[in-house]
Amino acid sequence: MPALGLRKTYLNVPAAEIQSYAFGHNKAGKRVRVTPGALDAQAYGIKTTAADLLRFLEVNIDPSRLEPFLQKAMESMQIRSCRVGNMYQSLGWEL
Fold first, then answer.
1. Residue 7 in contact with residue 52, Cβ under 8 Å?
2. What confidence tens digit (pLDDT) does each residue in 1-53 have?
């Protein structure tokens, strides 16, 4: 992730960074963090800050400042691979 300029993006957020991440709310309206359970890793995935999310969008829109192998990786995520009606799906995007 650092090679993309994502400095605060994690699979498991370190305790020292937890204050940068939003809480959810349970049925009682109490603030909660992600709770373990069946398929939790698949459902919750990567956690990121708003700044890193914007950076991820920037490198997808214009990957030209990345290393050549990362440029190719970012561009390959947008290759149309499946059509569903008027929409195309790719590895990382729907067009």
1. yes
2. 889 999 999 888 898 988 888 788 889 999 887 777 777 766 677 888 899 99
Closest CA to 60 of 43, 79, 45, 42: 79
Q: How far apart are CA 62 and CA 79, in angstroms?
A: 15
Tokens of 67: 């290393």
Cross-strand bridge partners of residue 82: 89
Q: How many CA atoms lie within 13 A of 63 on its CB side?
A: 16
Nearest Cα neighbor of 1 from 64, 61, 51, 62 is: 51
**Side-chain-facing half-sphere of 13: CA atoms under 13 Å:** 19
Token pair recorded at residue 91: 């590895």
Pairing mode, if any, of strands 82-84 and 87-89? antiparallel
Six token digits for residue 27: 């049925």
